[in-house]
Specification:
Blueprint (H helix, E strand, L loop, with lengths): L35 H10 L19 H7 L6 H8 L14 H10 L48 H12 L2 H14 L7 H5 L21 H14 L7
Helix pairs in contact: 2-3
GO molecular function, one term: protein kinase binding
Protein name: NBEL2 protein
Pfam families: Beach
Length: 239
């Protein structure tokens, strides 16, 4: 699911105002237009001496297993899976999902962080609460303990956040623009010249049919590629 809003600081959420919505025609990595030049330069200057890795704009993916565990860190079995991924402990508190406004701010400040959202943001308020009382540590700058997810100012409760977020998803603005995001993720801007122009090219392994695993005789090499594909993220089948 896409990030659909950009306003996480107002006291009330005005869904009749187009300015509260993210520009759905752009990949999340360039939702902040300031990043577009850097992303483009990275693509144009990339060269693989072996000739196997195609040029790409983003070295990480908008949807992968680690991203799901990141958002669902407070909910089992994802808590345990997160700990396994982090070699037996919780990741550094500052890197955890601790605040919805801070997560959006990270997209605005860091073109490397291109995680989109997961469906739970639109129906499952429980994932925002540290119901199991996990010790998630403290943030370095504020020394604030990480517990329940910090909500936008316009949300009165977790249930209210889900309710308003879902209303935003069903709004007139999103209905009129969602096809632009679908073009990027599932459609004609997913790969090829249109993807290059839209600054929407990801690491080659993520695309369907990019690697023929059956043709790789070296088992170590095949396992390494399988690991990259399963952990890195996968672009959906193109419509």
């Amino acid at each position: 699911f896409p990030w659909i809003l950009r306003d996480y600081v107002s006291e009330t959420l005005d869904l009749s105002n187009p300015a509260v919505f993210r520009d759905l025609s752009k990949p999340i990595g360039v939702a902040n237009e300031r990043h577009a030049r850097d992303v483009k330069e990275k693509y144009e200057s990339f060269e693989d001496p072996t000739g196997t890795v195609d040029k790409f704009h983003y070295g990480t993916h908008y949807s992968n297993a680690a991203g799901v565990m990141h958002y669902l860190i407070r909910t089992e079995p994802f808590t345990t899976l997160h700990i396994q991924l982090q070699s037996g402990r919780f990741d550094c508190s500052d890197r955890q999902f601790h605040s919805v406004p801070a997560a959006w701010q990270a997209r605005m400040e860091n073109p490397v962080d291109v995680k989109e959202l997961i469906p739970e943001f639109f129906y499952f308020p429980e994932f925002l609460e540290n119901q199991n009382g996990f010790d998630l540590g403290c943030l370095q700058l504020s020394n604030e303990k990480v517990g329940d997810v910090v909500l936008p100012r316009w949300a009165r409760s977790r249930e209210d956040f889900i309710h308003q977020h879902r209303k935003a998803l069903e709004s007139e603005y999103v209905s009129a623009h969602l096809h632009e995001w679908i073009d990027l993720i599932f459609g004609y801007k997913q790969r090829g010249p249109a993807a290059v122009e839209a600054l929407n090219v990801f690491y080659y392994c993520t695309y369907e049919g990019a690697v023929d695993l059956d043709a790789i005789a070296d088992e170590t090499q095949r396992k390494a590629l399988e690991g990259i594909i399963s952990n890195f993220g996968q672009t959906p089948c193109q419509l």
